[in-house]
Write a structure and sequence with these properties.
Layout: E1 7-10, H1 20-35, E2 40-46, E3 49-53, E4 78-86, E5 89-95, E6 107-111, H2 120-138, H3 141-152
Antiparallel strand pairs: 1-3, 1-6, 2-3, 4-5, 4-6
């Protein structure tokens, strides 16, 4: 895999720092060179691992699977590889399952080709569903409190 990955799944064991802001900063320092650009970070984004991804433009949504409203909804968006760290570099060694679990290894993800990525109709449907689900989730006071905590960190 010669190109830089589009996303990473990072086991909890990689977390350092005493608060979310310190944890994000530690991950930024370690993984910014791997991804090659600013990234978004989701704590416990999938299977108890932290989901770190590069934003890919206005029609890119922070989803692990193709979102509801997409012709491939529910399918994994990434090809995942187990990575080994040698000489400060993460090197993909072998493919991981489409539904990876925390094995203690960092997983590198490469976006699968998406013929519908630039479709305005698909993007609008995804955006509407995303906003609907966000509004529904915010009705839960625990979710709303956690979101405020993350945004203020």
């Amino acid at each position: 895999m010669p190109r830089k990955p589009d996303a990473l799944l990072i086991p909890r064991s990689y977390r350092t720092g005493t608060n979310p802001a310190a944890q994000r900063e530690a991950l930024r320092k370690e993984f910014l060179p791997v991804l090659g650009g600013p990234f978004s970070y989701t704590v416990d984004g999938y299977a108890g691992m932290d989901f770190v991804r590069l934003p890919r433009g206005v029609n890119d949504f922070p989803t692990f699977f193709f979102p509801t409203g997409h012709p491939r909804q529910g399918e994994g968006r990434y090809d995942w590889w187990v990575a080994e760290k040698t000489d400060g570099q993460l090197s993909p060694t072998f493919p991981a399952d489409d539904h990876p679990t925390d094995t203690g290894h960092v997983l590198v993800g490469y976006l699968k080709p998406d013929a519908d990525a630039d479709s305005p109709t698909v993007a609008q449907g995804i955006a509407e569903e995303f906003q609907r689900r966000k509004a529904e989730a915010l009705k839960d006071s625990a979710v709303a409190a956690r979101l405020r905590e993350i945004e203020n960190a």
